[in-house]
């Protein structure tokens, strides 16, 4: 199979979907790899590094799209790339289609096979390709919030960990999955006062055991969040419903009740955001102020640490790439239920129920769609 990797063109996105180690594995298995010139530069991988392990370095993105049977990316296709997708071509990347209807329409129109990293799911419910970026984003969220609490700038001028004689800041983490748990780890490490709100009682119990009374855990409800948010210096939105648009759990009225100059980091923005006042930003202009509160809502947060993010992402996606290249996508999907769960669209039909429901598009079970286009 010819496998292609193109340079990411989303604003300030520096990650790359394939490292030289990825290329080595695919070439060793007998496949041809096309790497767009400069694709790894943002993560400090040189074209020479790829060429040395057997990749063909191609100057033009359009050529990679045209020749490759499988395109491996990091972020969803951008408008200039819509026309480059074609029927039967495998697109393997983060998609977050529930929050991106224009991308979903382009994918359906192209009749490509779209497999989303974020919906690849193991039988135990774990999302192996979403987890690493969630961990990165969760840890970054506290660092970012701590930065914007400082001055100069619109922040409160608060040291999140406090010092003797001045209390620490209050961090409210909404959600207790990978993002939330990693945010808690960093916030506790900085010495902040931490509250975690979640509907997942088992996760709250695990966090309570881990931190032995150093954090407050509460079952999430509108009243519980409203009561805690009034004293929060930093709120981290970490709510995830797989494949669906994130539910809004923080209203504008709640945001209005926060201290002036406090900070919100909505990590759920790539799924539409879990805070009513959230709107997507980017790394060039990452913040805005609404209701007197600083909002950070960059959908590709891990793109700010591309060397770390690219290494872990490429390592985890590689076994799926090799399996699809070796077996063909249809056979790989038949053999691997986890990969099958990642298929969002197959030859113009939406095959993930949550994505179809969020976009109000007809859902077609994957096996039915595959049978219709055998």
Number of strands: 15
Principal-axis shape: globular
> Average pLDDT value?
96
Number of domains: 2
Low-confidence stretches: none
Distance between the termini: 19 Å
Estimated radius of gyration = 21 Å
Order of helices and strands: EHEHEHEHEHEHEHEHEHEHEEEHHHEEHH
State the secondary-structure class: alpha/beta
Beta-strand content estimate = 15-25%
Give the CATH architecture of the largest domain. 3-Layer(aba) Sandwich
Helix content: 25-40%
Q: What is the name of the CATH class of the largest domain?
A: Alpha Beta
CATH overall fold name of the largest domain: Rossmann fold
Largest sheet: 8 strands, mixed
Describe this structure in words.
This protein has 374 residues and is α/β, with parallel strands linked by helices. It has 15 helices and 15 strands. The strands form two sheets. Strands 3-2-1-4-5-6-14-15 form an eight-stranded mixed sheet, with helices on both faces. Strands 9-8-7-10-11-13-12 form a seven-stranded mixed sheet, with helices on both faces.
């Amino acid at each position: 199979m010819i496998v292609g990797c193109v340079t990411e063109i989303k604003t300030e996105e520096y990650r790359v979907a394939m490292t030289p180690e990825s290329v080595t594995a695919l070439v060793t298995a007998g496949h041809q790899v096309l790497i767009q010139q400069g694709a790894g530069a943002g993560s400090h991988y040189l074209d020479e590094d790829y060429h040395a392990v057997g990749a063909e370095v191609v100057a033009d993105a359009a050529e990679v799209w045209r020749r490759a049977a499988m395109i491996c990316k990091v972020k969803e296709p951008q408008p200039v790339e819509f026309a480059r997708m074609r029927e039967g071509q495998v697109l393997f990347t983060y998609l977050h289609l529930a929050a991106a209807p224009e991308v979903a329409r382009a994918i359906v129109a192209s009749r490509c096979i779209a497999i989303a990293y974020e919906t690849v799911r193991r039988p135990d419910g774990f999302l192996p390709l979403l987890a690493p970026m969630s961990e990165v984003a969760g840890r970054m969220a506290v660092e970012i919030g701590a930065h914007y609490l400082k001055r100069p700038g619109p922040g409160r001028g608060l040291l999140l960990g406090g010092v003797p004689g001045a209390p620490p800041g209050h961090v409210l983490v909404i959600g207790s999955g990978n993002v939330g748990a990693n945010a808690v780890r960093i916030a506790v490490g900085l010495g902040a006062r931490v509250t975690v709100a979640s509907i997942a009682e088992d996760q709250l119990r695990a966090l309570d055991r881990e931190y032995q009374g150093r954090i407050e855990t509460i079952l999430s409800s509108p009243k519980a969040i409203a009561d805690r948010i009034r004293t929060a210096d930093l709120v981290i939105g970490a709510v995830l419903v797989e494949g669906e648009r994130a539910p809004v759990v923080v209203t504008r009225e709640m945001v209005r009740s926060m201290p002036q100059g406090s900070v919100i980091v909505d990590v759920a923005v790539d799924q539409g955001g879990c805070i009513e006042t959230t709107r997507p930003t980017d790394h060039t202009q990452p913040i805005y102020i609404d209701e007197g509160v600083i909002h950070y809502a960059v959908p590709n947060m891990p793109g700010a640490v591309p060397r770390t993010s690219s290494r872990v992402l490429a390592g985890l996606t590689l076994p799926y790439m090799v399996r699809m290249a070796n077996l063909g996508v249809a056979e790989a999907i038949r053999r691997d239920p986890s990969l099958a769960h990642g298929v969002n669209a197959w030859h113009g039909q939406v095959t993930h129920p949550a994505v179809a429901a969020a976009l109000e598009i007809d859902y077609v079970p994957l096996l039915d769609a595959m049978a219709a286009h055998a």
